Amino acid sequence: MNQLLLSLSAFLVASVTVLSAHAQEIKGDAKAGEKKNAMCIGCHGIVGYQASFPEIHKVPKISGQGEKYIIAALNAYKKGERKHPTMRGVSVSLSDQDMADLAVFYAISGVDAKAKPLEKAADGSAKAMELLAKGACLSCHGESLSKPIDPSYPKIAGQHSDYLFVALKAYKVDGNPQVGRGNAIMGGVAKQFTNAELKELANYIGRLPGELKTVPESRFR
To answer: Are 182 and 124 spatial neighbours (Cβ–Cβ below 8 Å)?
Structure first.
């Protein structure tokens, strides 16, 4: 019996190792992603498009966003860690390969290879800089707020301020089945601030030069 259990245990470990290696080997294909983005372009492919849930705000710019972050965000919606009915509906329909394809497509969409690297983010008001330091935003998102220290973290410089405000507030929400973001680090950061402070912080970040864009499909131009 012990030998059987040991054999079964070894088999399960080997299976998990193979599955883990397989997951790590998934490579995105930008051309495939372009063909799979029909559910994305209706919101993210229209300049200035606004969503109405949970309040009116511009949908985020995702062209030029980090590949690993896009995958992480989609998985968070799929698992329910980020609560948003529309994005959950989209994400649950996507396989790991679909996510990888879409992520690499949007990561290179609208990117200018000749563009100069972003420099240190310019200072804002004294209050904005105080809030930035309190939240230790640069320690994760980089000096330009567009060079995150981990590829699964987002670029945030130049993102729509009203979207950033809504996203930051979502990290403060607990126990709501429709709204909220379950991330221990960002939850701890956001809960330090009043909503007025989060709005000021979002306004500062949104005014910074960044790499994020909304690249419309030809049909929307």
So the answer is: no
What is the average pLDDT score of the chain? 90
Whole-structure pTM value: 0.87
Amino acid, res. 171: Y
Place of tokens 């059987």: 4
- CA-CA-CA-CA dihedral for 49, 199, 103, 78, to nearest 10: -90
| One-letter amino acid of 42 | G
pLDDT of residue 220: 52
Check: CB of residue 64 under 8 Å from CB of residue 110. yes
pLDDT per residue over 36-57, tens digit each? 999 999 999 999 999 999 999 9
3-state SS track over 38-50: HHHHHHHCCCCCE
Q: Which domains does the chain have, with CATH numbers?
A: 27-113+120-220 (1.10.760.10)
Q: How far apart are CA 44 and CA 50, in angstroms?
A: 10
Kindly give, in sequence order, each residue whose CB lies less than 8 Å from that of residue 122, ignoring residues fewer than 6 positions away. 208
Exposed e or buried b for every residue in 30-56, given b needs 16+ CB within 10 A? bebbeebbebbbebbbeeeeebeebee
Q: Are 57 and 51 in contact, with CB atoms under 8 Å apart?
A: yes
Q: Provide Rg for the chain, Cα atoms.
A: 19
